[in-house]
UniProtKB/TrEMBL annotation:
TM region(s), chain numbering: 26-45, 84-116, 145-165, 185-210
Subcellular location: Cell membrane
Keyword Protease attributed: no
Keywords annotated in UniProt: Bacterial flagellum biogenesis, Bacterial flagellum protein export, Cell membrane, Cell projection, Cilium, Flagellum, Membrane, Protein transport, Transmembrane, Transmembrane helix, Transport
Gene Ontology CC annotation, any one: plasma membrane
Organism this protein belongs to: Aeoliella mucimassa
Region (Disordered): 1-24
Record's function text: Required for formation of the rod structure in the basal body of the flagellar apparatus. Together with FliI and FliH, may constitute the export apparatus of flagellin.
The keyword Transmembrane helix is annotated on this UniProt entry: yes
Topology in the lipid bilayer: Multi-pass membrane protein
Family, similarity comment: Belongs to the type III secretion exporter family.
Gene Ontology biological-process annotations: bacterial-type flagellum assembly; protein secretion
Protein name: Flagellar biosynthetic protein FlhB
Amino acid sequence: MAEDSGEKSFDATPHRRQQAREKGQVAYSQDLGSAVLLLIAAGLLRLMGSTVVESATDLLIRNLGEVDSLTGDRELLLTQLQRAIGGIGLAVLPILFLLMLAAAGSTVLQIGFLFVPDRLAPDFSRLNPLSGVQRIVSMQGVARLGFGLLKVAIVASVAGAAIYARWDQILLSSSLEIGQIAMMLIDVTIATLLWVGGALLTLALFDFAFQKWKHEQDLKMTHQEIKEEMKNMQGDPQIIARRRQVQRQMVMNRMSGAVPQADVVVTNPTELAVAIKYEHGVMAAPVVVAKGAGVLAQRIRRLALENNIPIVERKPLAQLLYKEVDVNHPIPDGSYAAVAEVLAYVYQLKGKKIPGMKRAA
């Protein structure tokens, strides 16, 4: 059987997933981030490229237009060149900033916000040539190489198809001016990038789905691993059972001494039992000396019968006292009248004088 053979046939527990995440083991596709970045870059170039080119051209003309007058002054030439480069950098800065946000966003969408300090430490084992060769010749390395070759073939085909679709336009470019040729080449390049980015995005989605599936398979657990995790999180089941047994015995012993001293036991009638005691002149209000549900309620009723303690069925009162009053605590003011009525009934049964009770302050 799978449980006996140690086969990983059980889904990972939340604790196992959290441990893997803390170690940086998450489903992630580098191709997906690259494809999204390429598409956004092509889109930004289509939307803002002409503006950036015009700004750069204007800066170059304004700063380096009169080259002949600058050749004699080297420092002035360098100053003008720095101004031109700085201006072009400022013009390109919005595109670079948006690309940075896109790169961060594609990663966050895949794995969420994750910080793993251990990954920042150098891992010298990756510098071992033997380990590198083993990774390359492994089945996973061969599969990655095959997928890479397939990706190159598909991208080359898509790029060729995109260029072929504009082949007539490219052939007619010989009759255009230099500026028009440049704009046409930029347009063809951006269109090709969009087609290539779309193909890469499709492949990346398949890669991400595969990485997600592989991650789930790697996280799967054996029956023994689940048992060990439960033991580590909750403790040894035998110790827990023993602890509960000792606690139950302590409760039983406390009941054995408290219930015989009670004046009445209020029941539900079978699910709950609450033992109440009142000493006139000593207690300001009746006190709950024992309570229980299920087995403990049966124990309280049995002790009451053995010690001739009256048992009175009052369902709402028993539920209220069981929920709201702790053992060895007085009853709340809201239940005072109902408890007084029960005690009065019990004293009449015993033929005793009904003591006066003062409301607890």
